[in-house]
Design brief:
The protein is of the alpha+beta class and about 160 residues long. It has 5 helices and 7 strands; from the N terminus they run αααββββααβββ. The chain has helices spanning about 5-15, 20-25, 30-40, 95, 110-130; strands spanning about 55, 60-65, 75-80, 85, 130-135, 140-150, 150-155. The protein is globular and about 45 Å long.
Length: about 160
């Protein structure tokens, strides 16, 4: 899972230049975009660009997960005998989008790419039995993904 630095640059531009955002975002989403841009502005000096596959710290690897935003990323935490993917906004409605990875959400910058990325990462997770977590789970838990019929099933590890 690698990404070019162009992906990360597009991620920053998406939030830094409102003209681009206004062309992309519906007016109802503008307040959320403004919050993200304010956070980005506040931490501008501390931001270090990275690419998918980069080791950010020992045991923490960047994972490029495009579609939600141009440079959307997750983080793979690995130890000797365990691993966890923090996938951010790969999905917003776990109970729907795990079973139907093609279902997109209004906040996905590129819905087609978001669905493709979601299916790809769900497939990988179902094959390697790695744990996953994300901000849109119903509780602060980890889960596993398994193949189920023509899609996937999420099993929370409470």
């Amino acid at each position: 899972m690698t990404a070019s630095s162009a992906h990360m640059a597009r991620q920053r531009l998406f939030f830094l230049y409102p003209v681009t955002a206004f062309q992309i975002l519906h007016v109802a989403h503008q307040r959320l975009f403004d919050v993200a841009r304010n956070v980005l502005d506040a931490y501008q000096q501390q931001i270090t660009p990275f690419e998918g596959g980069d080791v950010l710290l020992p045991g923490i690897i960047a994972v490029h997960l495009p579609g939600h935003t141009p440079g959307h990323s997750g983080y793979l935490l690995e130890s000797e005998d365990d691993s966890l993917l923090i996938w951010g906004d790969v999905l917003h409605f776990p109970h729907i989008q795990v079973a139907r990875p093609d279902v997109t959400f209004a906040f996905d910058h590129n819905p087609g790419l978001a669905a493709k990325t979601r299916r790809k990462i769900l497939t990988e997770l179902s094959r390697n039995n790695r744990y996953v977590t994300g901000v849109h789970f119903n509780a602060p838990v980890r889960a596993t993904i398994e193949n189920y019929k023509d899609a996937f099933r999420l099993t929370y590890d409470l």
